[in-house]
Amino acid sequence: MSASAEILSHVNRLPAFPASAARLAALLDDERAGAPEVEKVIRPDPALTASLLRIAASAYFSPRNRPETVRQAVTLLGVKRTFEVASGAALASMIPARLPGYDLEARAFWLHCVAVAVFSERLAKEIGGRSPDLLFTAGLLHDIGKLVISAFVQRESPSILLKARAGMDFSAAEREVLGVDHAEVGAHVAATWHLPEPVAWAARWHHRPASAPQIADRSLVDLVHAADVLAISLGMGTDTGELARSVDSEAWARLGLNVRRMEAVASEGLQSVKELAAALGEAK
Amino acid sequence: MRLTALTVEISDMKVSSNPADMLITYALGSCIAVIVHDPVRKVGGMIHYMLPLSEISPEKAQEKPAMFADTGIPELFRSMYGMGCDKKNLVVKVAGGGALYDDKGLFNIGKRNYTVLRKMFWKAGVMISAEDVGGAKSRTARLWVGDGRCTIACQGQEVEL
């Protein structure tokens, strides 16, 4: 078996995505589903109930009202937002203590995921226009492939690091050495977990938005790419690759981004990243 | 004497006159740490600023002056003077200002952070005694308040600055 086939076969060994979060994902496609249906999924799951109430009470999700019951939280947030919160709690519960291939502790990985989710939404707001569906979740889960590929990256770490430090994008170095990178593996994880398409698109193309196919939501992929660049640059969840990642200039142009807009997003988003990483992280 | 590590978070600064303290800041990417030590008064200070200019958000600058070079660096020096330090004795070091691989130079926060710092120091007549800046690197900076020793850890190695 080739290295890449072996890595992809390990996707099936990941624990299943928590059942209630998966059921909420299914409800997203059901136009008739409203607060009562969502509540029915959440109530029997005490861990999810607790995380939902805690996260829904954060300033980021509810700047004005603090919901006290599941019904209030679901009514306030809506079906999509409730799923986004549940997917955050689900991911938090699945992160191992350490991702050895990336020399990354759980807390740092988590900080990075939350930073990309928050910055993606802030960027969408900064440039105006329609915010893509499930942008928060797509940002939060963009690196899920690392949960699978980490052990393999560790095995080949010296060769990958040599290339990355000589000027190659870290995920391109993963592809050269392992035949597959964390982004491609992430898309397989998203499919295995039956996560909504935007999550798979962001996972697959966040380092190479120019290669995303027509079918993918281009602006979503561009936003997650830019948010990832910002989070890496600011040292939020720095891993062994340090800053050895590429900036895609076409994504920049499509979004109408410039360095000042990025600075505005960094300055406005910093506090939310810290608060939300703490609130969502308690689900661990 | 037990060593105490004081962590300087992003957009934060710390000053100490306790010789048993070590100031440390992690994961400097495009952010910059200014590390100041007064060997006469045995005072050390460190800022980890994120952005060059506070004009981007004057409210945030009020709340967290250490977020920006133009509000944070003067605050750091004022705190040092407030602890009896003399400008002529200060040893100033700089680390960070890194960048991703970015052919077109679109996303140059690190460079902007560094340019603003150089301008401010030039105007104020502050000399940089050592620096480790730029590159696709993440750095961790340490300063031992007692003897002014300063190190930078990066790409798996820790060296004196």
Verbal overview:
- The complex is a heterodimer of chains A (284) and B (161).
- Chain A is an all-alpha fold and 284 residues long.
- Chain A has a single domain, classed as Hypothetical protein af1432, CATH 1.10.3210.
- Helix content of chain A is 64%, strand content 1%.
- Chain A has 15 helices and 2 strands.
- Chain A has a two-stranded antiparallel sheet with strand order 1-2.
- In chain A, a hairpin with a 4-residue loop joins strand 1 and strand 2.
- In chain A, helix 3 (35-42) packs across helix 5 (70-94).
- With 161 residues, chain B is of the alpha+beta class.
- Chain B has a single domain (4-160), classed as 60s Ribosomal Protein L30, Chain: A (2-Layer Sandwich).
- Helices cover 22% and strands 35% of the residues of chain B.
- Chain B contains 3 helices and 10 strands; from the N terminus they run E-E-E-E-E-H-H-E-H-E-E-E-E.
- Chain B has helices spanning 58-63, 69-82, 109-124, and strands at 4-7, 12-16, 21-28, 32-38, 43-49, 91-96, 130-133, 139-144, 150-154, 157-160.
- In chain B, strands 1-3-8-9-10 form a 5-stranded mixed sheet, with no helix packed on it. A 5-stranded mixed sheet of chain B has the order 2-5-4-6-7.
- In chain B, strand 4 (32-38) and strand 5 form a beta hairpin.
- Chain B is globular and about 50 Å long.
- In chain B, 48% of the residues are buried.
- The model of chain B has no long low-confidence stretch (mean pLDDT 97).
- At the A-B interface, helix 13 and helix 15 of A face strand 3 and helix 3 of B.
